């Protein structure tokens, strides 16, 4: 049997850090990452044959659970017809229509056009290029601790792996590129107003996660998302609303649908980005939005964007089947599992005397250790929390067969396959994890 440790060592000799995406390396929690051999429903199994209840969900896509049989069959059937054609296929329009139709409230449909790419990074990169192309301006506004993938302009003060490893930015991004990204504190409308008052004529647009979930989960304050759209539009700038992580995970209609559930006049971002769930585990993402902006894309307009594998037939098949299956009952199951799990975590931590706050945005959640007066609202507060309690908490769960995200800065993902029995098994593992968090001590300064 090959062990995780042997594979990690072998991989690290040829792949930097032994992984193809930094957070997977267990850098901030320590130890050896599990090399996954297979996954089914709510569980993953590593190369040593050990099964874990999975709370990572491939970082979001596994809404229905792993290897959902209909999705697997659809992908297999597509594969049998050919892996990639570099030409349009019928399913692209169908998946685009499915995505666009879901983002609808009170007759408002912000997605009039959609283009598929292969990753969320490409989707947000294309979105900011479109905002610049549409306005003829250079500056982009983003928020501290939010993550939009790894394109140069958006790595400044970003969440996810940069937060995990405590990096303010990435080496290799030129000073000139960084200077074109203005970073503001999340949930601070006054800061947005001030920067637009000072530099509004030069700002192409704002990009924002629909609900922040890459610095742990930090929900937008009521009115924040609508407010930034008002401010941007008053200055002739655009807004990209990044639903790569939240889209069709927190509701049938994404975070936009949750926030606008009862709105007579839903707010309307100019562009939206999607990924993760729209491929059900296959590599696909998308940028969509107002026709007037989207039609600037080549070959209709002058903003260039392309991709050899864009609209890949296997990914399109996985996406269509996933979205067709992701109906109201799926979201009820996911919401119920998330609520039951949050309750169990809260009870275990309370019983162990560990001060904490469970941050939520729909079914997404994360744990902010330490005393907090109310929900944490920005990155500074998250960084000031007792993140050092996370590693022992994480490892105590892992030792008992529960795989939480290997970073305090990542969201926890449940799926429709996380039923009551699975939640009970996690609950049984929580007291030991809570005790480990209670015993943790801060690192020496
Ligand atoms: C909100 C958000 N935007 C963009 C991305 C980038 O997507 P990808 O990893 O597919 O490039 C991610 C996650 O990685 C994300 O969470
Ligand atoms: N936080 C990231 C996506 O949402 C985690 C995925 C990755 O970068 O590996």
From TrEMBL:
<comment type="similarity">
    <text>Belongs to the class-III pyridoxal-phosphate-dependent aminotransferase family. HemL subfamily.</text>
</comment>
<dbReference type="GO" id="GO:0030170">
    <property type="term" value="F:pyridoxal phosphate binding"/>
</dbReference>
<keyword id="KW-0413">Isomerase</keyword>
<keyword id="KW-0627">Porphyrin biosynthesis</keyword>
<dbReference type="GO" id="GO:0005737">
    <property type="term" value="C:cytoplasm"/>
</dbReference>
<comment type="subunit">
    <text>Homodimer.</text>
</comment>
<keyword id="KW-0963">Cytoplasm</keyword>
<dbReference type="GO" id="GO:0042286">
    <property type="term" value="F:glutamate-1-semialdehyde 2,1-aminomutase activity"/>
</dbReference>
<protein>
    <recommendedName>
        <fullName>Glutamate-1-semialdehyde 2,1-aminomutase</fullName>
        <ecNumber>5.4.3.8</ecNumber>
    </recommendedName>
</protein>
<dbReference type="Pfam" id="PF00202">
    <property type="entry name" value="Aminotran_3"/>
</dbReference>
<dbReference type="InterPro" id="IPR015421">
    <property type="entry name" value="PyrdxlP-dep_Trfase_major"/>
</dbReference>
<comment type="pathway">
    <text>Porphyrin-containing compound metabolism; protoporphyrin-IX biosynthesis; 5-aminolevulinate from L-glutamyl-tRNA(Glu): step 2/2.</text>
</comment>
<keyword id="KW-0663">Pyridoxal phosphate</keyword>
<dbReference type="GO" id="GO:0008483">
    <property type="term" value="F:transaminase activity"/>
</dbReference>
<dbReference type="InterPro" id="IPR004639">
    <property type="entry name" value="4pyrrol_synth_GluAld_NH2Trfase"/>
</dbReference>
<dbReference type="InterPro" id="IPR015422">
    <property type="entry name" value="PyrdxlP-dep_Trfase_small"/>
</dbReference>
<feature type="modified residue" description="N6-(pyridoxal phosphate)lysine">
    <location>
        <position position="276"/>
    </location>
</feature>
<dbReference type="GO" id="GO:0006782">
    <property type="term" value="P:protoporphyrinogen IX biosynthetic process"/>
</dbReference>
<dbReference type="InterPro" id="IPR005814">
    <property type="entry name" value="Aminotrans_3"/>
</dbReference>
<dbReference type="InterPro" id="IPR015424">
    <property type="entry name" value="PyrdxlP-dep_Trfase"/>
</dbReference>
């Amino acid at each position: 049997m090959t062990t995780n440790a042997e594979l990690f060592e072998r991989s690290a000799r040829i792949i930097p850090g032994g992984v193809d995406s930094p957070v997977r390396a267990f850098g901030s929690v320590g130890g050896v990452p599990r090399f996954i051999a297979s996954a089914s429903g709510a569980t993953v199994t590593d190369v040593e044959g050990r099964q874990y209840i999975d709370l990572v969900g491939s970082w979001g896509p596994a809404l229905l659970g792993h290897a959902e049989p209909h999705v697997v069959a659809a992908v297999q059937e597509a594969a049998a017809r050919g892996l990639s054609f570099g030409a349009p296929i019928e399913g692209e329009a169908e998946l685009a229509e499915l995505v666009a139709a879901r983002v609808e409230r009170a007759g408002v449909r912000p997605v009039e056009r959609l283009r598929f790419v292969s990753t969320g990074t490409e989707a947000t990169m294309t979105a900011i290029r479109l905002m610049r192309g549409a306005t003829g301006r250079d500056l982009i506004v983003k928020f501290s601790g939010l993550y939009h993938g790894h394109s140069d302009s958006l790595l400044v003060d970003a969440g996810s792996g940069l937060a995990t490893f405590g990096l303010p930015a990435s080496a290799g991004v030129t000073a000139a590129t960084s200077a074109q990204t203005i970073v503001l504190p999340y949930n601070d409308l006054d800061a947005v107003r001030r920067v637009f008052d000072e530099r509004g004529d030069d700002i192409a647009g704002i990009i924002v996660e629909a609900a922040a979930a890459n610095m742990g989960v930090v929900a937008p304050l009521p009115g924040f998302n609508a407010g930034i759209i008002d401010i941007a539009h008053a200055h002739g700038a655009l807004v990209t609303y990044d639903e790569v992580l939240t889209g069709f995970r927190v509701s049938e209609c994404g975070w936009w649908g949750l926030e606008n559930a009862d709105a007579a006049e839903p707010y309307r971002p100019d562009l939206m980005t999607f990924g993760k769930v729209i491929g059900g585990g296959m590599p696909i993402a998308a940028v969509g939005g107002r026709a007037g902006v989207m039609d600037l894309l080549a070959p209709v307009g002058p903003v260039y964007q392309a991709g050899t594998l864009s609209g890949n037939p296997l990914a399109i098949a996985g996406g269509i089947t996933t979205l067709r299956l992701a109906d109201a009952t799926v979201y009820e199951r996911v919401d119920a599992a998330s609520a039951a799990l949050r309750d169990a975590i809260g009870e275990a931590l309370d019983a162990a005397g560990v001060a904490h706050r469970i941050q939520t945005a729909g079914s997404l959640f994360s744990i902010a250790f330490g005393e907090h007066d109310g929900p944490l609202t920005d990155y500074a507060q998250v960084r000031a929390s007792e993140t050092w309690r996370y590693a022992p908490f994480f490892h105590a769960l892992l030792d008992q067969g529960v795989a939480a995200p290997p970073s305090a800065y990542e969201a926890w993902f449940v799926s429709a396959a996380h039923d009551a029995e699975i939640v009970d098994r996690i609950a049984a593992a929580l007291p030991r994890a809570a005790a480990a968090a209670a015993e943790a001590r801060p690192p020496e300064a």
